[in-house]
Structure formats: structure tokens, C-alpha cells
Design a protein that fits this description.
This protein is mainly α. The longest helix has 31 residues.
Length: 275
């Protein structure tokens, strides 16, 4: 219940810490030593944390204290039925859209600030470090919206994506107003995308427990978010170089609106089938 929800939102904060380390700590190590040292340091940290996490894992959750008993089906739902008989395909489309926008902002923010605001690279990275901090607020907003919608995760995702589309429109209109407004609107766009993240990666898969496919859905969700991330790496670069940053902002708006449409379709399908 509430304990699980709080834990799932807190887990998403690790993404923010990761970006701060990637842009801040790795940049400091690279400047002080070399790229090789930065990669070796982060690799060692990852290995230590991975081993520690593996040793701390349990095969079965400890839920007796809450008096909760999870009932799993004897036979999981066939994958074909899961894909074509439920709203999963719509959710998968929304995951790609969110990944494209989320990591497009995080990966390209320094270059955007350099090219549109005339910052030096060091100054742009320094300003861009504010974005992960604001992402924390986005996750907390996501938590509040989730509660306000009565735990209806698709409704919460839809509202956050709609807010993200508004922020992206403001970015398209207002990035010429100066560095402050550009960074502010960029941070708001990122915050809404990160507010969606724990809802997609943690809460949606749990809704497929009765189908016996929590692990499958969780894996697909993560894979498709990173597919969107991979697309952002190439498409954002191509759009910014060929058509300018206005085209990038428009692509973010369109992708976010497609995500909203996917959530609306998912909600209607579940209402129609009473899933």
C-alpha cells in the first residue's frame, strides 16, 4: 500500500543521483585526471553497488507483517493475449514517447544552452546540473498526482504528460526570452517526464500481477523507455543540426501528446473491457 508506493517513488530518485554523478562527479574526475580514470572510477562504483544489491536480494518478499497474501495464477496469461487483448501495446507506445522526451532533455540540455544562449560548455553544464535537482520535485509532484487520482496510475500519467506538453510549448515560445526562462522551462519539461517515470516503471507492471506477467511487463516497459532514449540520441541531434532547436521542441510536444493519447486510449479500453 502506502509503504510500497513511497518506496517505489524513492527508488526513482536514484536516477537523479546518477545524472548528478555523471555530469558533476565524472566531469570533475575527467578535469582532474583523465577520461580513463573517470570510467574506471564509475565502473568500480557500479560493480560494488551491484554486488551489494545482489547480496541484499531476497527470493520472496516479506509481506507477512502486513498480513497480505498475494495470489498468483497457476498459469500466466499467454503473451499474445497480453499484447493484443489488453491495453499493453498502448502503454508500450507511451513508454517510448516518455523515454524520447526524458532522455532527450537530459542528454542534450548542455548543447541546447550553448547553441541558444551562448554559454560556454562549462557554464552550460553548471546550469544543466540544476535540472536533475528540479527532477526531484517532479517525482514528488508525480506522487501527489497519483494520490489525488485515487491511485489510478494511467490518469496520473496522462495529467503529468499533459502538463509536460504545456511546459514544452512554453519552452518553444520562451527560450528566446533569455537564459533564465530557457533553463526554467527546460527544467519543467524534464521534471514532468521524471514525474511520469516511477508511475510507468514501477506502478504499471504491478497491475499485471493477476495475469502473472509482472516481470515481463516491467522488462518491456524498461526496454521501450530506453528505445525512446536511443531514438532521442540520434533524432534530436539530426533535428537540431538540420532544422534547428524549434524542430526539436516540436518533436517533444508531439511525442508527449502521443503519450497522452495512448493513456486516454488505455483508460477507455480498460473501462470498456472492465479490466
Amino acid at each position: 500500500g502506502e509503504v510500497r508506493a513511497r518506496a517505489l517513488f524513492h527508488i526513482s530518485i536514484t536516477l537523479i543521483v546518477g545524472y548528478l554523478c555523471a555530469w558533476g562527479l565524472s566531469g570533475f574526475i575527467t578535469a582532474a585526471a583523465s577520461w580513463r580514470t573517470a570510467f574506471m572510477t564509475t565502473g568500480c562504483i557500479t560493480a560494488v553497488l551491484g554486488i551489494g544489491s545482489f547480496m541484499a536480494m531476497r527470493d520472496e518478499p516479506q509481506i507477512e507483517a502486513e498480513g497480505v497474501r498475494l495470489e498468483t495464477p497457476e498459469k500466466p496469461m499467454p503473451i499474445a493475449a497480453l499484447l493484443f487483448g489488453t491495453d499493453l501495446l498502448l502503454l508500450m507506445a507511451g513508454c517510448v514517447m516518455n523515454g524520447y522526451v526524458r532522455d532527450g532533455i537530459m542528454n542534450w540540455a548542455p548543447k541546447l544552452l550553448v547553441e541558444t544562449q551562448g554559454f560556454s560548455l562549462n557554464s552550460a553544464v553548471g546550469v544543466a546540473l540544476i535540472i536533475p535537482l528540479i527532477n526531484y520535485l517532479g517525482i514528488q509532484v508525480g506522487r501527489i498526482v497519483y494520490k489525488r487520482t485515487g491511485g489510478r496510475v494511467r490518469n496520473a500519467i496522462m495529467l503529468l504528460m499533459a502538463a509536460g506538453a504545456v511546459a514544452e510549448l512554453l519552452l518553444l515560445i520562451g527560450y528566446r526570452w533569455g537564459a533564465f526562462f530557457c533553463a526554467l522551462f527546460l527544467a519543467l519539461c524534464s521534471a514532468m517526464a521524471y514525474g511520469v517515470n516511477p508511475l510507468i516503471t514501477s506502478f504499471l507492471p504491478m497491475e499485471y500481477h493477476q495475469a502473472g506477467r509482472v516481470g515481463f511487463v516491467a522488462g518491456m516497459v524498461d526496454a521501450l523507455i530506453y528505445l525512446g532514449s536511443a531514438l532521442s540520441g540520434t533524432l534530436t541531434g539530426a533535428l537540431s543540426s538540420g532544422l534547428g532547436w524549434n524542430a526539436v521542441f516540436v518533436s517533444w510536444i508531439l511525442c508527449t501528446l502521443l503519450g497522452v493519447a495512448a493513456m486516454i486510449g488505455s483508460i477507455r479500453m480498460r473501462m470498456r473491457k472492465r479490466i
